Batch of 3 targets.
Target 1
Amino acid sequence: GLMCMGPSEDDDQMSQTQKVFSMMMSIKDEWSNNKEIAKFFSKGIKLSMGMSNDYRLAIQLGSDFLRIGS
């Protein structure tokens, strides 16, 4: 699967984090639709993003898994 973290806890408006999470969701979609890549993920491509300070945004943007903690 794919995993990422937001760029900074100082991102009060979550704008940078939203950009990163949106980009990762786009990559997940692109890879899922590419048969040459998708064949390596027998259970589908999963996305892990978000931590305690941004988990709500991660859920909104399609995260399959969260890491609660910092």
Note: The chain is about 40% helix and 10% strand.
Target 2
Amino acid sequence: MERHPNVLVTGAGGQVGRALQAALPGHRALTHEQLDVTDERAVLDAVWDCDHVVHLAALTNVEGNVAA
């Protein structure tokens, strides 16, 4: 039986993360609330058994401007 890669998506609560969850069913996805990517120990615990990590955490509209 073929083994599928173990993929972890960080920043999964954002727009791209949500879209990727729909496109890749069965992968692990963690939001900012579930994984603080600035916490080294938490990140190491989350990724130790992953084949791939898709890191999508990002800030958007950082100045608080509303697009016209």
Note: Residues 12 and 61 are 18 Å apart (CA to CA).
Target 3
Amino acid sequence: MGKIYLDKVKRLQKLSRQEQEDLIFDLVYALTKSQNLNEAALFLQDLLTKKEAEILSKRLRIAKLLINGMTYQQISNNLYVSHGTVAKIAVWLAEKGD
């Protein structure tokens, strides 16, 4: 399983930075074409596995809770995530802004 993941990472790294950005913008563009929240939710449900949707949702919620001043421990207990996951999102917020 680890080898498959590494192979996928290597394939993604073969793309130029511009190509990687284009992929992200394709996703964002597709989301913005949704007429309402329900359509966007259905689109993501079709696009992502249940686990992928859960991971992304938790990351966004962690960011929101950090912005609102919740502690790492409170977030870990609330969302059943590791301290490391919260720390990773905190670094992302510090580097990229809210």
Note: The mean pLDDT is 88.
